[in-house]
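My current task is to audit a protein record that another person submitted. Alongside the sequence sits a line of tokens, each denoting a local backbone shape. Please read both lines and tell me whether the tokens look consistent with the sequence. Do not assume that whoever made the record got everything right. Thanks in advance; the entry in question is below.
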Amino acid sequence: MDNVYRQVTVFYRENPDLKELLPQDLIEKYLRKCAWNGMADAELRRIWDAVAVVLLYIKQLQLFSLDSLTVHDYQEALYMAQDAHKEWFLSEPKVTSFFQVLDAFYAYLLKLGYDDYRKELELARLTFWEKDGFALPERQGHDEFFNSLDHLEELSPEDVEKLNDLLENLLNRAGEYFRRPPFLFDLTRAVSIYAGPFMEIAKDNEDDFWFSFWDYFFFDYHLIQSDQNPLRYYYEHEKERLQPSERHIVEDLLRAKFTIFSIDRIDDDFIQCTNLFTNKQHTLPAPDYGFMDFKKVILYGHLHTKGVMMLNYITSVSATSKLRQRMKEEILRQYELYKCQEPEATLEDFFQRHAAAARHTINILANFAQLNVVSTKPYRRPSLEGVPAGTPDAVLAVLRAKAKKAGFSVHAIGLVQRMYEDFRFAAGQKEQFDMKNLVAALLFVFVDLNGLDFVQKDFVLELTEASLSEAEELAKKVRKTLECAPMDPRYLTEEGFVRALYMV
């Protein structure tokens, strides 16, 4: 019986064109490294079998690199391998082994200077598991329209038209889905966050407003009950009713990230852009409209560099290089304030939670004679080290229940809970408070900090059955004990962060 190295030699003799994609000596060196670490020949064969499956798939589809592989490609590669080997089937152990082997091999390639291919691999792996456990994803085949676009360098006018029709129909249905009664409060809240406290919708710009709003709503807004963005929620709840191409369009869109960038160069078909915060470069299709002076433009929207870029809605705003730098500084200042809540948060985490605040910052600085949108006053967070998070407490249960009835979002409930935990720690566990008055006091303070106009004081009193005078007095104690500043960043919601930009 041939050993694994003989199998590799025969494979490359029969497929010499694959040597440029993945050199034979490289895979042999990796196998020898694994052998030196104690792997038996059977384990080495398992590694080579997985790599060979991927290489043969790339050859059959005439792709150009490992980086070109999509989630669909990994799925289809396994199905094609099953077709070629009738004696075995895609069991959970076999699929698990396939992804584990490739993940380790890709990590090895990364150390050698290759690109990191593991993100797409992990996304593909996840498609083989559902809530109830292992399950093979539905096989789509190469004739499925959206997947067929992944590897095209240029789309035909017919493909563009078909794709646009698919997308428009899909998003129109998603929009109708969220116009139903269960989501009317969410829509009202989303418009309030997106428009800001003083913004009016101009009659001559109404279409642009709503087009941009839906982009924000689908990608950046967080639903009250689930804290998911609506596009994710729609996908999870309507997946079975979507056509294969529609599912893949949504999957593609869900991987887009909110990005702020400038234009470096414009070619006939593409624009070369640079991320304002990471300096990473992106190549995007040139828009239908031209830029009078692209050096004085900043753009923001949702980018997915491996996706079909025309699906991403991009907003352009006039901004000189000096103004872009101010925008960057203001947004980074907001990010630092957000870390009062989430000390370990990345900038991407901030954008995921507060893209609305970033949008407002850009528009305020671009359209108003305002030097700053974030307070430059130094903020000193009270020392609350060692606050026991999530400690079981009767007050917590009542506070969460009343906050939910008041219309608080999942995120806001978590923040008001944190306020209570901070207060109990700072006030001392021995000091006792009437539960009804304490819950009302916390809601008073939280509502005031965030400008939650939909929660009136009378409603809070009715909800909690608290005494107005006692609750107000206790609210003063909460503010003093926590050293609450106006627009205190420890407890700001999405609404609060946006409102704070207009209160400087």
Observations:
- The radius of gyration is 27 Å.
- The beta strands are 129-130, 133-134, 257-266, 270-275, 281-285, 297-303, 314-318.
- Residues 205 and 417 are 40 Å apart (CA to CA).
